[in-house]
């Protein structure tokens, strides 16, 4: 039986629309399509979860396409995507907004400027929280009520109780074990459906390179696909960090190699981004074995 046969018609339409590449560019806030999943089940499961109003946590290494997937989901659902990029400096105002002084009819007034969380909730749009485990633990509890059955928040700056519109959804991304990250507490993690996102390999990666770079030399494309596989294996063996195996960096190298020698493209796009000299040497050796 086809995997989508048991799904409701609305969800089947979205899955089929993606598979048939019938995606359209909408308003500038809506993400661009283009994510290629490792298998159909990943896409189907995420669409089902979002269609049921559940929050989704994308878990995967850096450069594996988590942000691109969020943008593709925004495109599929025709839903604007408001984003929060987490860091150790992230505070409550980064989520809910801030107060500012304004002048109206010659009078000084205090205005509240809504942040991405408030805008997404009030408009019933998607909120994307990138690298959620980089935020300070004391900042994240403010969104607990947003992520559970209450779907609401009391704005600490205005005391307004904000209830999310029905179409509001949260998509978050996490890169476990990365420098500067912390473990998500169980209360927060339990509010998400968790989807593992791995690096693309083989034919899917080849398709991604052809669709997203200027490289059209099949021999070179196959060599870059093999390089990616070798880098992923080196990552699993602890020889290089996940940065070295980033698909984003690989695509940059493919683009550059259309104009400059591949080994120099790899140097600029991958090797020079690494901090450890031993890691640089591993990547350099792998490139030497594949490219002339």
UniProtKB/TrEMBL annotation:
This is MoxR family ATPase. PANTHER family: MAGNESIUM-CHELATASE SUBUNIT CHLD (PTHR42759:SF1), MOXR FAMILY PROTEIN (PTHR42759). SUPFAM superfamilies: P-loop containing nucleoside triphosphate hydrolases. It comes from the Bacteria. InterPro entries: AAA+_ATPase, ATPase_dyneun-rel_AAA, CbbQ/NirQ/NorQ/GpvN, ClpA/B, P-loop_NTPase. Pfam families: AAA_5. GO terms for molecular function: ATP binding; ATP hydrolysis activity. Belongs to the CbbQ/NirQ/NorQ/GpvN family.
């Amino acid at each position: 039986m086809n995997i989508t046969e048991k799904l409701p018609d609305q969800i089947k339409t979205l899955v089929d629309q993606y598979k048939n590449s019938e995606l359209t560019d909408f308003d500038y806030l809506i993400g661009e399509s283009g994510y290629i999943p490792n298998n159909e089940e990943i896409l189907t499961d995420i669409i089902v979860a979002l269609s049921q109003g559940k929050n989704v946590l994308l878990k995967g290494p850096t450069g594996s396409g988590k942000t691109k997937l969020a943008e593709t989901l925004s495109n599929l659902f025709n839903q604007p995507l408001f984003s929060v990029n987490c860091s150790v400096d992230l505070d409550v105002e980064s989520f809910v907004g801030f107060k500012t002084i304004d002048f109206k009819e010659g009078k000084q007034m205090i205005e509240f400027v809504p942040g991405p969380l408030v805008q997404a909730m009030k408009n019933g749009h998607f909120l994307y929280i990138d690298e959620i485990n980089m935020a300070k633990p004391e900042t994240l509890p403010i969104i607990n009520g947003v992520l559970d059955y209450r779907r609401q928040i009391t704005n600490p700056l205005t005391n307004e109780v904000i209830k999310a519109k029905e179409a509001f959804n949260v998509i978050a991304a996490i890169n476990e074990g990365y420098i500067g990250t912390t473990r998500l507490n169980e209360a927060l993690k339990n509010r998400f459906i968790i989807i593992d996102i791995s690096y693309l390999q083989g034919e899917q990666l080849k398709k991604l390179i052809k669709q997203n770079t200027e490289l059209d030399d099949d021999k070179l494309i196959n060599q870059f696909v093999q390089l990616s596989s070798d880098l992923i294996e080196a990552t699993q063996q602890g020889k290089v960090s996940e940065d070295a195996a980033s698909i984003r960096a690989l695509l940059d190298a493919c683009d550059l190699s259309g104009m400059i020698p591949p080994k120099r493209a790899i140097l600029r796009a991958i090797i020079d981004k690494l901090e450890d000299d031993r890691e640089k040497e591993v990547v350099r050796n792998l490139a030497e074995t594949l490219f002339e």
